[in-house]
Amino acid sequence: VRLRPPATVVENAPGAMGRSSGFLLFLRAAESALPAGASVVVLGDRGPGTDAASDTLIAVGQLPRQEVLSPARLGGEVPRPQLPRYVVAFGRPLEDPRYRLFRELPGGFLYRAGP
Amino acid sequence: VSPGLAFLALFSILPALGLWVLALPACECTDAAGRTGLAAVAGALGLCLEMFLLSWAGVRWSLPLLGIPVLAAGFVTLAARRPRPASRAAGGPGAAALAAGAAGLLLAAFAAGTARATSPDLLLFWGAKAERFAAVRALDASYLARPEHFLMHSDYPPLLPLLSAAGTLAAGRLPWGATLLLLPVFVLFSALVFWAWAQPILGGRAAGDLAALLTALLGYGLVSASCAGNAEPPLLFFEVAALAGAVFGPARLGTDLFISLALAGAALTKVEGAIFAAIVVLAIAGLARSGKGRLGSFLVLSAAPALTLGAWFLFCRRHGILDAYRGGNMGPLVMRWLPRAARAIASSLGYGAFYLPWLVLAGLWLAGARRDALARKRSFLPLAAGAATALANVFYYLHGDSDPSLWIRWSAERTYLTPLVCLFFAAAAASGASFGKESASGRVRMGLEERRNHESL
After folding, report:
1. What is the reported pLDDT for B445?
2. How far apart are CA B416 and CA B433, in angstroms?
3. In the A/B pair of chains, how many CB contacts fall below 8 A?
4. ipTM score of complex
5. pLDDT tens-place string over residues B136-187
6. Which of A9, A13, A64 shows the shortest C-beta gap to B131?
7. Which residues of chain B have pLDDT under 70?
């Protein structure tokens, strides 16, 4: 038996909560890779029992130094200067020509708006 | 010191921040453990109000600014205290009760601390609010008003995020893992405040047995309902404090003032807390007070929750963040959901233990209530409060156009912890005689009328 503190606050929780542990670890990695004050959209791809609004709220708490915005801010009609500076995508790569891969993170990808 | 320890240290000194409540004569006649529980109520509420009022006044928080006024008030209170009269029912808890209570607390701490009972709401809004408030050293209404944060429930009562923000100031950043351990901290405070009121009436042995039972009940219920990091642990703490004062406290102004403070704490912790406060005020004024004292008691009991919740309402209105309290968000009352709601509630309340919590408490209550009329009378107030809160939950669930079954399965375990606690108090009030040796002295036979004349309190 090896005693260690849980890696995240949901590591041993039942159901969809427990499955969020990987998402929290991913956000922890993103937090240290993003500059303070950066605007960022978080895209989760976590399957049943999750939704974009919840993912955004979770990210708001896990990225306190950054400005987390809704995925709606990536809409096609948003002018390029008003796009969020960064996108972090959990699990699945982002396919958006306005963003370029900035860094691979454990569990996902970090993108930065192109010039 | 690690951030987690610093965060928990802030919560462990809540009783020191609330020593001023011992100036109430009704709060004098208990031992150090009981005084710790009583002061924790005042400490949590006082710190929350300080942070809220400073934010409203535009003054940024700092730990000295928050701590010095309440600590000074507490030390002045202690210095000015007269020697308290000896409790008529002195005595400590039995060794078995202490061991059982400690075991229950440790098991709850293990389940919560190892992330087995984490509430989704910790991740969705409680933690984020605390982190933000601590970062800007204020209750940041503009943060709550942002469209991206609309699911954070902008006008949810602020006590938990404010206290967590104070802990975050001490820790430097929000230690998410430590927030889970607030569950056992508030369970311990609940047991202590129950002890404060019950021990002088029931005697140490009986009150200790019941406090151990309460510890097990709260620990198991909160873990089963995945409430670690959620606001239920402080909510139930304030509810236990109010009910303990109502059931075991003397019918005096000081008791009513304390109950009023506890109800204010409940109302500032969750929306359900305001409903509980209204029910308990009506129950005490209507059932446990008589004659001329009824109106005065009603006014005193309702003063603190009405003033504090009113202030929060005004703050939200001023900053344009009214949401749940604005009304109209719940949808229409749909009575055809009643059969489905009843089925979903019934299937949710087993707590994974074949309804054992309910059955044990109902059995204890029945055993006491069958014995004599006074036992039945003592237990009527918590039974009425429990029935009313249970029905209020049903009423709440019947609102909306969609089938509430999923919503109920998701939340009923925690929303029905309040009626469960009320049933505990009914059992405690009625069955005190079956616990411990002191019962033989007849102290537990004191009814409401006798308690009004209980001079030593």
Report:
1. 35
2. 27
3. 70
4. 0.92
5. 999 999 999 988 888 888 999 999 999 999 999 999 999 999 999 999 999 9
6. A64
7. 82-90, 328, 432-457
Count how many residues are written for chain B.
457
Residues from B in contact with A at Cβ < 8 Å:
113-118, 120, 122-125, 127-128, 131-132, 135, 147-149, 151-152, 173-174, 176-177, 179-180, 226, 229
SS3 A100: strand
Q: Do A8 and B128 touch (CB under 8 A)?
A: no
Residue A54 in contact with partner chain B when CB distance is under 8 A: yes
- In whole angstroms, give the CA distance from residue B226 to residue A70: 28
Instruction: Tell me: pLDDT of A100 over 70.
Output: yes
Give me A5's structure tokens: 């503190």
Burial of B310 (0-12, 13-18, 19+ CB in 10 A): exposed
Burial class (CB in 10 A: 0-12, 13-18, 19+), A49: exposed
Per the listing, tokens 């229950």 go with B104
CA B131 to chain centre: 23
φ/ψ of residue B85, rounded to 5: -65, 150
CA distance B170 to chain A (A): 17
Measured between beta carbons, the chain A residues lying within 8 angstroms of B229 are 9
- Tell me how close the Cα of A22 comes to any Cα of chain B, in angstroms: 14
User: At B435, which amino acid appears?
Assistant: F
> Which tokens in the block code for residue B220?
């198991």
Among residues A22, A66, A15, which one has the least CA distance to residue B120? A15
